[in-house]
Amino acid sequence: MTWTEIGWVIIGLAVVLLLFFSLLFSQRGRYAVRVNPAVNAFVKQRVRSLEGGKQSQVALGDRFWSRAYPALGLHALSVSASLEETDLGAQETQVFAAGTGELALFARQILCGTYQGGYSSALNLILTGPTPYSFLAGFLGEMGLHSTGSVGLFGHYGPTGALILEAAQMKGGHPFAAAGSISAQAALFLTTRDLLIGEEIFLLPGLMDRSPSLQAAWISEDILRVLLITLLVVAAGLTLAGVL
Amino acid sequence: MKRIIAILVASLTGLTVLAGYFFQAQLANLTGLLIEWGILLIGLAGVIGIGYLLKMHLVRVAHWQKGSLLSLIVLVAFLVTVGIGFFLPSESAFFRNWVLNIQIPVETSLLAILAVTMLFASLRIIRTRGWTLMSASFLISALISLILNLHYLNPAIGTAGAEWLEFVRRLPLAGLRGILIGIALGGLIVGLRVLLGMDRPYEDGP
Questions:
Q1: pLDDT value at position B144?
Q2: Is B186 at the interface with chain A, CB within 8 A?
Q3: What digits encode the pLDDT tens for the residues A186-196?
Q4: Shortest distance, CA A51 to any CA of chain B (angstroms)
Q5: Which of A100, A221, B91, B102 has minimal CB crowding within 10 Å?
Q6: Domains of chain A, earliest start first
Q7: CA–CA–CA angle B185, B191, B196 (5° rounding)
Q8: Which positions ≥6 away from A4 have C-beta within 8 Å?
Q9: What is the ipTM of this complex?
Q10: Which residue, among A79, A123, A199, would best test binding to B if mutated, counting the most B CBs under 10 Å from its CB?
């Protein structure tokens, strides 16, 4: 079996699992989604920030697409839809920040409705800088201008993402991160307690919105993960035994 | 109808590009064309994004809001860079020096701040995360890694000590691969959800 064929098998299996569980959960049955204290704390702090008139800042990443982490930009857009506050008062104390033009444009389209229908003037979506470093400098500058409540990091970052969370903590805000890359996760681990690592990042929308299709994504990912772990352990055992 | 067309266009384009990875010889021309269109659209979106950036700073300066001085500096720097960029080619040594001599020192100083922040954050980790198995493991493994990478321990090649050292050095790689496999699985599911029309970020907002 070639690597291409293994790739097709994994993708095919994921498609079958997603479709099967989406159909199953839309009719009956639910998947018991795990409780994540970090996500619960973030949601509570967001509500507190919005009620207390402090800014709730959501950073959507310093790039939309990267070769090593192609889905992080899409994930940030997916999360932004879950985080959107429809209440006008809440919209004014909520800021979405993007690090590239396409991320800002797509997020704006998601958050404000149709492109043709015009933009909501209450929505605070800003492009703080078009490159990773200018995004960081711009975002830190924006944080300095307002009283910070909760700060959520989603999407793609380098280790410099840790500076944002450190600044948030220094301003008395509540930092939360569900962001990549590997180097960013290592740096973020030091600066915040509320951090999602690895595959947990992509399960976040399912924790905030327990719709059947998101629960199908949860269970599909869990099954694939267990399957891969089993295969890796078996392959390692067979290699040790000299069979492979 | 508009909704169905959007889902069809997104799904067919995505599936074609995905198939292009597996059938490179047959679909190279088509996927190449689709990727070029995508790059063109992303470039255009980038220009619109720059428009957002300018608008935000212009509004701030016009109303003399908090932070307007910084916005003014951003606007002036942007206009000067764009102005010079229009008249000089990007290969121009003068243009490159002019931009890079500002950009590189600024970025380097941000990295320096990051290094200091990381150092203090490492020292504060117990206060941030408490005495947990994770934080204790992190501290111990960081310490062991630091000692090993100082190269004070140099056992002879082929001895049990050398093999043990090699094993300890490779341990972080195993963890890294585990996290990368998790990220890849998550990314696969997110991508497939978009391709199958379950997640529609391109659609009208709620």
A1: 87
A2: yes
A3: 899 888 889 99
A4: 23
A5: B91
A6: 13-33+210-244 (no CATH), 35-209 (3.40.50)
A7: 120
A8: B22
A9: 0.84
A10: A199
